[in-house]
Design brief:
- 2 copies of one chain form a homodimer.
- Chain A has 5 helices and 3 strands; from the N terminus they run H-H-E-H-H-E-E-H.
- Chain A has about 110 residues and is an alpha+beta fold.
- In chain A, a hairpin with a 5-residue loop joins strand 2 and strand 3.
- Chain A is globular, with a radius of gyration of 17 Å.
- At the A-B interface, helix 1, helix 2 and helix 5 of A face helix 1, helix 2 and helix 5 of B.
- Chain A binds a DNA duplex (30 and 30 nucleotides) through helix 1, helix 3, helix 4 and strand 3.
Chain lengths: ~110, ~110
DNA sequence: AATTATACCTCGATTATCTAGGTATATTAT
DNA sequence: ATAATATACCTAGATAATCGAGGTATAATT
């Protein structure tokens, strides 16, 4: 079992929206960006990403449009909406609280006992 | 959908072993401790905890023994083994790398673009 | 005496991710 | 030219972690 797989669970939406907050991006690119920016710590799979993008589009957190690459290949770009930015803020806040609490328990474990 | 539920996924073992590294503890107590120490951020359910404890015992990361409470109720205490401490170190390292990379992407999203 | 809290447990449902397929087009290698 | 690889999208079924809801048993409270 890859250990990261489960840690990733729950933060994928946060990561995707974070990427999109920096500019429009297409799916394949997001996978490469996450891989690169995390130094290969997480590898989001296509089977995970595309359904999530469709879900985000359904709830109007992102919109999409097609654009051809210079070489002529079709790409589907995603753009974060105002609603998506609000969602991002929520996810960010959640993540910050969560990671803070985990750190508190992990680092405080030795000193918290009598 | 409770948002924490999925963030929690993957860090439960880390949290449990962290608690046990501070001293022996019984299941019901762990749930209360996690709730208290995280300021109600995560609530580990019994249906989640007990199977994990049994799994950790199977892989010799913890041992268990029964002890009666002052009032006479039976409690099953868990004790972290040397192997469990090694596992804890691994999980800690994983968590640190993971949370660091998430933070990098979340906070760097705006500035990383051209 | 009945209800609530403590303390353990398990099974089936839910949900997120992955694996493994599929389609189509462009690039690179032979 | 042709085959193989890389890009780019997609979905369905398998896998895995958590939860919900139940169960048992005993102590404390009402």
């Amino acid at each position: 079992m890859k250990p990261d797989k489960n840690l990733l669970s729950g933060s994928t939406t946060l990561l995707i929206l974070s990427l999109l907050s920096g500019g429009d991006m297409y799916g394949y690119e997001m996978i490469a960006q996450l891989e690169a920016r995390s130094d290969h710590t997480f590898t989001l799979r296509e089977g995970t990403l595309y359904p999530i993008l469709h879900g985000l589009e359904n709830k109007k957190a992102v919109t999409s449009y097609e654009k051809e690459s210079p070489s002529g290949r079709k790409r589907k770009y995603y753009h974060i909406t105002r609603k998506g930015l609000r969602l991002l803020d929520e996810k960010k806040a959640e993540w910050q609280v969560f990671s803070e609490k985990v750190n508190a328990i992990v680092t405080g474990a030795a000193g918290a006992m009598a």
